[in-house]
Amino acid sequence: MCPRVRAAVAKIKRNRRWPMLDRLPIPNWTRNRITLLGDAAHPMLQYIAQGACQALEDAVCLGENLKKYGGDAARAFLAYQEPRIERTARVQSVARFFGEIKHVHGVSIQLRNALLAKRTADDFEYFEWLYGYKG
After folding, report:
1. How far apart are CA 74 and CA 111, in angstroms?
2. Bridge partners of residue 30, in order along the sequence
3. Which residues, listed in sequence order, are joined to residue 31 by a DSSP beta bridge?
4. How far is Cα of residue 82 from the mean position of the Cα atoms in its chain?
5. Smallest Cα–Cα separation from 54: which of 33, 34, 31, 25?
6. Beta bridge partners of 35
7. C-alpha dist (Å) from residue 67 to 63, 64, 134
8. Residue 37: exposure state from Cβ atoms within 10 A (0-12, 13-18, ≥19)
9. How far, in Å, CA of 27 to CA of 29, rounded?
C-alpha cells in the first residue's frame, strides 16, 4: 500500500458510531402547496439500498403530475403522493426487516445463513415488485 494511503488510513477514527434512523410510514406528505419527497417523506434504512432510488421515482412521479395538472400544484402534489405512499411504505418496511435479518443473534444466525445459502445471486423472486416496478 502507498505510504500516503497508510498514513491517511491511520488517521481515520473508527470509534464513531453513526446511528441509522428511519421512521414509520406516514399517510400524508402534502399540505396545500408544499409536498415532501425522498428522505423527507420516507426515510429508510440502507439495507436494500433504495433511499436514492425511491427519491428518483418520487421526482419522476412528481414531475409527471406537475405537467399533467399545470398550475394546480396542490392537485398535482396529491396525485403524486397517492401511488408513492403505498410503494415507499412497503420499501421502508422491507428495508427495516432486512436490517433485522442482518443483525440476528445466536442460533438465528445459522438459520438465516442456511436459508440464504440456498438462493442464487440472480434469484429476485421476492423482489419483482421492487425491481420490476413500472410506475
Report:
1. 49
2. 35
3. 34
4. 18
5. 25
6. 30
7. 6, 5, 19
8. buried
9. 7
Q: Within 10 A of 108 (CB to CB), how many other CB atoms are there?
A: 12
In this prediction, residue 1 carries a pLDDT of: 66
- Supply the pLDDT for residue 84: 98
Please give the average pLDDT of every successive group of 10 residues along the chain, which has 135 residues: 84 80 95 95 96 97 96 95 97 96 94 92 90 85
CA distance 34 to 47: 29
Residue 2 C-alpha cell reads as: 502507498
Residue type at position 89: A
DSSP the chain: --HHHHHHHHH---------------S--EETTEE--GGGT----GGG--HHHHHHHHHHHHHHHHHHHTT-HHHHHHHHHHHHHHHHHHHHHHHHHHHHHHT--THHHHHHHHHHHTS-TT--GGGHHHHT---
